[in-house]
Design a protein that fits this description.
- The chain is an all-alpha fold.
- It has six helices and no strands.
- The longest helix is centred in the first third of the chain and has 37 residues, at about 5-40.
- It is elongated.
- The model has no long low-confidence stretch (mean pLDDT about 85).
Length: about 130
């Protein structure tokens, strides 16, 4: 006995969805494993720092009730630059420091930098890219 065409088609569709679902589960497993490893070993990546800077910039801007356009005009930089900083995308150090200066964060950054013991061998910069 042969199976009706609609049954064979449904079976093929089910196998296709099952394959996609298994692939999706695989990526979830990798993502969660990375999170757990980072938590256990306290690994901080460049992206983590960029996202932290992004969050601080956005929160400070919103606390001052400024739009991205208004902040950009105050700092004489483009709205796109503010957007990139707030999204954790690449930006120049000068632009990051302009934002930090505007939000009165330079002294905190300076204290953090001074607290780093540059003679300690554990402070060597790893290649994270």
């Amino acid at each position: 006995a042969t199976l009706p065409n609609n049954f064979r088609s449904a079976t093929t569709d089910l196998k296709s969805h099952e394959t996609h679902f298994i692939g999706y589960l695989y990526y979830i497993r990798i993502y969660l494993t990375n999170i757990i490893v980072k938590m256990i070993f306290e690994i901080v990546t460049i992206n983590d720092i960029k996202l932290s800077i992004a969050k601080i910039c956005r929160e400070k801007r919103e606390a001052q009730k400024l739009s991205r356009d208004e902040l950009a005009a105050l700092l004489n930089i483009s709205r796109n630059t503010i957007q990139n900083i707030e999204l954790g995308k690449n930006s120049t150090i000068d632009n990051l420091l302009k934002v930090a200066y505007h939000f009165d964060l330079l002294s905190q950054i300076q204290r953090g930098l001074l607290s780093i013991d540059s003679t300690h061998p554990g402070n060597s910069i790893p290649k994270l890219y």
